[in-house]
Amino acid sequence: MESTPSIVDLMRAMGLSEEAIVRVSRLWGKSAARNGGRTHLLLGHLLDTAAVAEVMWDRYLSVALRRRLEEVSGGRGRLWFMWVCGIHDCGKACPAFQSLDDAEAAPVRAAGLSWGRLPTARQQRWRHDVAGAALLRPRLQMEWDSAEGAAWVWPLVAGHHGWFPSVGGLKPRHRDVQGRGAEWEEAQRAVVDVFTRAVGFEELADVRPVGALNRAEQLGLSGLIVMADWIASDSEQFGGIADAREISLAGARRRAEVAWQRLGLRGGWGGLAIPEDRLSPLAERLKVTPRASQRELLERAWSMPVPGLMVAEAPMGEGKTKAALAAAEVLAARFGLDGVFVAMPTQATSDPMYEQVLEWVRSFDPGLEAQVALLHGKRRFNPRWREVWEGVGAAAIGEAGGGYEPVALDPFDVYGATEEDAEYGMAPWLPGGGGVAQEVRDGPARWFLGSKRGLLTAFAVGTVDHLLLAATRTRHVMLRFAGLVGKVVVVDEVHAADIYMRQFLLEALRWLGQAKVPVILLSATLPPAQRQSFVDAYLSGALNAADTVCPVPEPAGYPCVTVSYALNGSPVAGSSREVVPPWRASVPTRIDWLPDVSEDGVLVASRVREEVAGGGVVLVVVNKVDRAQAVYRALTEDGFEGQMHLLHGRLCSAHRAKRTDECLRLLGPGAGEKRPERMVVIATQLAEQSFDVDADLLITDLAPVDLLLQRIGRLHRHSGTRRLASFTEPRVLVTGVAAGQEGRPSFLPASKGIYGEWALLRAAALVAEAAGPLGSEASQKGVWSIPADVPSLVARAYGEAEVCPPDWEESAARETWWAREHTREKKAEDVLLTRAREWGALTLEGLHYAGARMATGGDLEAVVRDGKRSVEVVIVRRSAGGYRALDGAWIGVHGEVDDETVVGRLLGGAVRLPSGLTEVAEAGLVPLPGWAGHPWLRYAPALVLEEDGTALLGKVRVSYDEFLGLVVEEV
What we know:
This protein is of the alpha/beta class and 971 residues long. Helices cover 39% and strands 13% of the residues. The chain starts with 6 loop residues before the first helix and ends with a strand. This is CRISPR-associated helicase Cas3. InterPro entries: Cas3-like_dom (IPR054712), Cas3_C (IPR041372), CRISPR-assoc_Cas3_HD (IPR006483), CRISPR-assoc_Cas3_HD_sf (IPR038257), DEAD_box_RNA_helicases (IPR050547), Helicase_Cas3_CRISPR-ass_core (IPR006474), P-loop_NTPase (IPR027417).
């Protein structure tokens, strides 16, 4: 027994009868069967969670959030946060829960808390999260004498398992599950009252908030409650206490402190000092000589009176991301934020940004390096991530028997199920190998690698999907949103979101605006209408008004920064007032046609050979993998002399990562003498953005103008690059289009399928203004002035005025395009976090109407990316007596893998199949038998290549070529 007063001592001091004390002391919270063999009493778990919350208050919550909780609690923020986190499981004090385990139920019944036959049908059972809200809500209404306060607090209890029911869903369908009689009523009241007193309040009435959090703040707080609960539910860290005389807040505090240390958890800056020099975040922290556009963004961060939205538009290669990081430091210091999330359009663009953010964070404190997360499914192939997250304590992990990912998590478990979910028929993941290794104190917090926890890391870089999913009506959305509250959010290449994804981005901006989260959006090619929609969405949230419209003044020039925020209940929006010169003077970029809509790649390959006969670097960007492979084949068959690199989405993970790194090494900034004399990079849209290479010549398939300009951004990108005399002028050859009937352009079918005909027609018209009409014998030798012409070209491409010749029938194409876009826009509404008519709601009650939940990781990806579903497979080769990985590593008779190094090599052969093969792949491909017990492999379908190197999938034959990647051929 502890020397400090126990929970039993407290109950006696409160005047509870001995019978009531015995009954409350028997209520269990964690069963021995699911808690490492040790029963944990209910009051013990509530106090553990409160103690974890207290540690989170001191070492995790941002200054801004602590201030806000102090405001609504009347200056008792710490205690109030402890209470609201710990009270979450009070609903376990009812027969519906206490009856779930016969061994645990026996002493409860023996103490006098009885029940009759309870319903076994799942729809009639009562979840304890809902039960807690139902038990607590009437007491809060009565004892707080505040329907408003009760209205926003009870959903926090009801939602701690990932979804928010309506008030109508609180009523049990079978009365006995709630508990009948004076004994149950007394016990339920006592659990709440004893816990409330133990935390530090005199009685429940004292907990009453003096204000209310807005709905976005409630959502973030709900996620923190889930976080505290999940940490306190770790049986290895907290064990169990079966004797109430051993339960006390002091003991819970000791356990929470030890658990926090062992898990290696921490927040971010912990209160960032305001820089003394206004330019030091750029000049000293990032070691750059500030350019005019960077200074403009930084100055706007200094001058913004409250958190708001910043939209930075600047040419490719201008240094927007460094400026955004510097601005994030200023915003975080001024407004009390504790970290940063940088959202990138793709996995490929996330990797180099992770390296950049890693070095930036180290400049504050080298120890913070271990708090930078990379959030995408291929992070294990990033060597820097593996060094940081797997290098620390690797020997201890191996001794403990842990796997390649040294944490007990299931990467395919989108529910983040706990043992409580299992009690309601949702199976949790049980690790097949050894236990979880203890964390070293200064190492990375691998707890954050668990499902849905990545954004909770102080500093994170990942795909924009993580931001978009925080705006979806999916289970545990509050955990994702909690990872954004208290941070500065940076979204790079924001123009890359199509109209479907944009609905989730706008929804995220509404919620972030309401939560007072500063957001920085970056783009080189942003249509004015999109800029306006982003401003309106953020201000709608900040003002809690669904239809806010605040016209953005036309920027004085390009680059420019637009800032918007709500001040004293009014919207404010403004753009750069003076012309900001770009880093480099605009350069005339010659635009020419290379008409070609063939599939064999011969014409493009021939032009490449011609252009680099005397040396040079050419980047070829095409819109279809098959076309990229065809160009590569044509060059290879002709015996091309020089380096060639092929990049596309059908490369296996290992090859794609290696080739991307090699291209960046040879053509990236600072390549210097490493830059080859002759080199060709053939790529798909992977090279369109955040691909920091410098080419002498660009050959590109026609694409919408903003994307075409992004591709041009890879041309003559770096200063000081040595070029041959023939490449002193940047040139672009536009292909993938040819003159059709009556001069109307004819496009590649793949291009039309991806972008739609209207956007391609307008792009062709704008290109023709410089290059002359398609099919014309004489070239106009016209130019685009880059970057000066970028804003006007993008504005015209997406404006209302027609730009195409009359005989191109632009109007009909526009109507077809808009009908498709409108359908996609409406489709997104089905899973947006809030329906438009409910944006004015004040609480989270009923947020998950219709029980909206997604079931698998693939489903989650499909939620925010509209398109044909595709399947990722792991390629293996059939070998005599068993199987080998794609790279030849032996993996056993049934595919069994004992060496985790081999697992990494095996997963290096993961590749995404074309969407046309999804149905046949889902019907016929399954994991190998030996993968059943491995967390990374047990759900991974195997594409088995026979000894001839091919596999038959329906009516196509697939193979994998070391250079071409996955090859798909009709049988």
